[in-house]
């Protein structure tokens, strides 16, 4: 359906050009306070009526507020997308850490529901790179939750660690300040095939090599052969590097030849690597499939301790789940909602389960997903639930620190119409 892609790409280009122009005239910075006031009125009015606010006033909060090259930080509103940030930073020496493969993802989604990237081996989840959140609470007060001012009464340091992965169950994001990382515009990628039973050993080797290689993508080709794609940023000083930005051609060449190969891509081409196919670029196509053809898209990421890699991959094959993409994640020893049941500063393997299920397949798929989610929780795993899940309330709270969360709810949430984190993340995504 090429026409759907044309509509999508035209809309995307318009939004990108509009975003650059509005930043140039400082539009979002000038009207940020006005948008907050509109949102405050909406929240107060909704709670008076006894209903949860729909946050319609936040839909205009999609701009870039401040770019500080000296501090290497970016401050943005919550609904700005990765697409817009890629284009904004294109001519600079900086990029976003822990970038999702879906470039339509917003900053708000990356924080409220969790986000990893191919560089999460070095940086953890995206929220581990954040420095400050500006939020509005149920009373309409503006709070600044900061990582840096730990001893200040106004820093709301505990709230800073509670916001990530909480959905919108504690407060509403107004802006986010996060670190940028330096970049070069070319990435050298080494592709090599690994059999499923050897994936764990190969991951251990990569862990032991430290963080020299920034990027790691592991692609499941046929449930038996996994293509490891290990990338590092390089400079083309002599303009002699041959560039090939076709991500699929590169890793399928490795799969066909069954041997290690090396390719160079532009960094921008790598950022958009999972959007080469028209079907995958088109958000409109996904909406039409969901609305008119009753197709459910499963796109969840599960993190489990490194030592359980072989067991989990075998279980997914048996249950006919599709582990599309894997990478390593280092979850740092920091406060937060996640229970550190496995220990501190441990490596996890992130597995992205992706599939499109029609109504005839739904029952058997649901049973398989339920069995898998039960097992990964038993193995001290963590789920980043994007859209569909079978988790019960009991199993969900095995992942989360309920005492810390309830303390935050008691301190910052005054209106119990607001959904809790289980309702935000699971109930609305229940796979029935």
UniProtKB/TrEMBL annotation:
<keyword id="KW-1133">Transmembrane helix</keyword>
<dbReference type="InterPro" id="IPR016169">
    <property type="entry name" value="FAD-bd_PCMH_sub2"/>
</dbReference>
<dbReference type="InterPro" id="IPR036318">
    <property type="entry name" value="FAD-bd_PCMH-like_sf"/>
</dbReference>
<dbReference type="GO" id="GO:0016020">
    <property type="term" value="C:membrane"/>
</dbReference>
<dbReference type="InterPro" id="IPR006094">
    <property type="entry name" value="Oxid_FAD_bind_N"/>
</dbReference>
<dbReference type="InterPro" id="IPR016166">
    <property type="entry name" value="FAD-bd_PCMH"/>
</dbReference>
<feature type="domain" description="FAD-binding PCMH-type">
    <location>
        <begin position="59"/>
        <end position="183"/>
    </location>
</feature>
<keyword id="KW-0812">Transmembrane</keyword>
<dbReference type="GO" id="GO:0000246">
    <property type="term" value="F:Delta24(24-1) sterol reductase activity"/>
</dbReference>
<dbReference type="GO" id="GO:0071949">
    <property type="term" value="F:FAD binding"/>
</dbReference>
<dbReference type="GO" id="GO:0008202">
    <property type="term" value="P:steroid metabolic process"/>
</dbReference>
<keyword id="KW-0560">Oxidoreductase</keyword>
<keyword id="KW-0472">Membrane</keyword>
<dbReference type="GO" id="GO:0005737">
    <property type="term" value="C:cytoplasm"/>
</dbReference>
<dbReference type="Pfam" id="PF01565">
    <property type="entry name" value="FAD_binding_4"/>
</dbReference>
<dbReference type="GO" id="GO:0050614">
    <property type="term" value="F:Delta24-sterol reductase activity"/>
</dbReference>
<dbReference type="InterPro" id="IPR040165">
    <property type="entry name" value="Diminuto-like"/>
</dbReference>
<protein>
    <recommendedName>
        <fullName>Delta(24)-sterol reductase</fullName>
        <ecNumber>1.3.1.72</ecNumber>
    </recommendedName>
</protein>
């Amino acid at each position: 359906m090429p026409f759907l892609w044309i509509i999508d790409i035209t809309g995307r280009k318009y939004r990108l050009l509009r975003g650059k122009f509005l930043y140039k005239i400082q539009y979002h910075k000038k009207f940020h306070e006005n948008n907050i006031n509109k949102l405050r009125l909406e929240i107060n009015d909704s709670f008076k009526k006894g209903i949860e606010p729909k946050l319609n006033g936040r839909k205009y909060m999609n701009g870039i507020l401040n770019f500080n090259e000296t501090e290497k930080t970016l401050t943005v509103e919550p609904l700005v997308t990765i697409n817009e940030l890629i284009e904004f930073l294109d001519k600079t020496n900086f990029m976003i850490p822990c970038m999702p493969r879906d470039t339509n993802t917003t900053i708000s989604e990356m924080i409220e529901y969790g986000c990893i990237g191919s560089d999460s081996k070095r940086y953890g989840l995206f929220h581990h790179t954040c420095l400050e959140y500006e939020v509005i609470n149920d009373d309409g007060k503006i709070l600044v939750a900061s990582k840096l001012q730990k001893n200040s009464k106004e820093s709301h340091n505990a709230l800073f660690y509670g916001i990530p992965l909480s959905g919108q169950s504690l407060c509403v994001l107004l802006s986010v300040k996060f670190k940028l990382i330096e970049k070069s515009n070319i990435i050298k990628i080494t592709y090599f095939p690994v059999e499923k039973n050897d994936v764990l050993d190969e991951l251990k080797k990569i862990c032991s090599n430290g963080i020299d290689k920034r990027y790691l993508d592991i692609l499941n080709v046929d449930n038996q052969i996994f293509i490891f794609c290990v990338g590092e940023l390089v400079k083309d000083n002599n303009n002699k590097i041959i560039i090939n930005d076709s991500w699929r051609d590169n890793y399928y060449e490795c799969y066909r030849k069954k041997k290690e190969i090396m390719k160079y891509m532009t960094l921008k081409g790598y950022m958009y690597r999972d959007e080469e196919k028209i079907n995958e670029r088109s958000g409109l196509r996904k909406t039409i499939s969901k609305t008119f053809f009753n197709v459910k898209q499963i796109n969840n990421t599960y993190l489990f301790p490194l030592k359980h890699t072989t067991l989990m991959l075998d279980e997914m094959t048996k249950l006919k789940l599709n582990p599309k993409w894997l990478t390593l994640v280092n979850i740092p020893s920091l406060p937060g909602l996640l229970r550190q049941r496995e220990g501190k500063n441990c490596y996890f393997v992130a597995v992205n389960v992706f599939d499109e299920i029609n109504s005839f397949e739904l029952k058997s798929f649901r049973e398989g997903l339920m069995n898998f989610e039960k097992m990964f929780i038993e193995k001290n795993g963590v789920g980043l639930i994007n859209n569909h899940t079978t988790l019960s309330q009991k199993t969900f709270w095995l992942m989360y620190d309920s005492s810390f969360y309830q303390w935050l709810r008691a301190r910052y949430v005054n209106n119990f119409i607001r959904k809790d984190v289980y309702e935000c993340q699971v109930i609305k995504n229940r796979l029935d």
